[in-house]
Amino acid sequence: MHEISLCYSLLDTVAVHQRANMNKSVSLVHVKVGPLSGVEPDLLHHAFLACRTHTIGDQATLRIDTSAIKIRCKLCGEFSRVSVNSILCASCGAWQTDLIEGDEFILQRIEFIAPDNFTESKERKHVR
Ligand SMILES: [Zn+2]
Predict the structure, then answer these.
(1) Ligand 1 centroid – CA 98 distance (Å)
(2) How far is the CA of 115 from the centre of ligand 1 (A)?
(3) How confident is the model over 70-119, as pLDDT tens digits?
(4) What are phi and psi of 9, to 5 degrees?
(5) Which of the four CATH numbers 3.30.2320.50, 3.40.50.2300, 3.10.330.20, 3.40.50.300 does domain 3-67+102-126 have?
(6) Contact 87/94 with Cβ under 8 angstroms?
(7) Where does this protein hold Ni(2+) (predicted)?
(8) Domain segments of the chain: what residues?
(9) C-alpha to C-alpha distance for 67 and 54, rounded to whole angstroms
């Protein structure tokens, strides 16, 4: 289950931002996962619950958004949204396509809890 190592990598990055934000408690870690990333969202969530205690604490929750698979046809130039098992141009049916989106694993946002108010840090970063 490589989600454990991905999770530690993710939480290492979050911990860097936590230190940069005066070690405020982390309330939310928001990631975006593409269907072709090789990351299974359910396994990532379980890994996060197992790993967070030793890194950023028990209070942090993980929000996982999944993206669509988007391609651009090399023959007709059209952009299409496709499914995992049919990566063909929706316009002309060609298999010669470029992947535009769908293989990413991105840290989108980290939210911190401040003692008297709520602040947040935004980041968009490829974790690997
Ligand atoms: Zn096409």
Answers:
(1) 11
(2) 54
(3) 999 999 999 999 999 999 999 999 999 999 999 999 999 999 997 665 55
(4) -65, -45
(5) 3.30.2320.50
(6) no
(7) 2
(8) 3-67+102-126, 68-101
(9) 29
